[in-house]
Specification:
The chain is an all-alpha fold. It contains nine helices and no strands.
């Protein structure tokens, strides 16, 4: 009887934890996608938003060759050349990643499709003026990867220091890709912000679904 009671208590605790996780990721998904929609509407209606010129000017005040070279290399972390191998490494090391691999792949594909559709609808030129830029595709992809990586790392049995190191690396990579897109004159700051919001929202939607499944652990 005691063992049965302990098992029931453990199962109840697990359900409560899962319910809290579902609520948290649902809130992240809805908030970020809602903020992305609002930002997209503002970009469509106004064009260059308040703060875009100032923030961009601050980041470009010291446009040294070494800084641009570093930005060029960082920029690769928002492309398939880095994200695909990194995703394969995570899949090889994480059982949670392999279990619903199609879900994580779907988050990348869905975010890319939404990014292209919104670019067409908003139709806001990049700083270079050669093509439309809202939201930043590189930043969107980097955000999807970083948020999913944060989630998957949290579900693996790792030492706290190792888990924290990996999570900081994922977030730093995401932010640096956004910074690089501005420094390389490819996007306005709100293009980058839009990419961060869209990528986070799409990744959070996939995580929300994953946690809601009984098999999630």
């Amino acid at each position: 009887m005691t063992m049965l009671s302990s098992l029931e208590i453990q199962q109840s605790d697990d359900r409560e934890v899962r319910s809290a996780d579902v609520s948290r990721w649902r809130a992240i998904c809805l908030f970020t996608l809602g903020a992305f929609l609002g930002l997209g509407l503002a970009a469509y209606a106004v064009g260059i938003l308040p703060g875009d010129l100032q923030v961009r000017s601050e980041l470009l005040t010291e446009d040294r060759s070494a800084l641009r070279t570093f930005a060029w290399w960082v920029n690769l972390a928002g492309t398939w050349r880095v994200l695909l191998p990194a995703s394969l490494v995570i899949a090889a090391l994480s059982r949670a990643a392999r279990r619903h691999w199609w879900l994580w792949a779907g988050a990348f594909l869905a975010s890319a499709a939404l990014e292209q559709a919104v670019k067409f609808l908003v139709d806001r030129p990049r700083p270079s003026g050669f093509s439309v830029g809202f939201p930043s595709g590189h930043t969107t992809a980097a955000a999807v990867f970083a948020v999913i990586a944060l989630y998957l790392v949290s579900r693996e049995r790792l030492r706290p220091a190792a888990r924290l190191c990996l999570q900081i690396t994922a977030v730093a990579m995401m932010l640096l890709v956004g910074w690089a897109r501005i420094v390389l004159h490819a996007h306005w700051p709100t293009d980058v912000l839009g990419g961060l919001l869209l990528g986070t929202g799409c990744a959070a939607a996939a995580i929300w679904w994953d946690i809601s499944r009984p098999t999630a652990s």
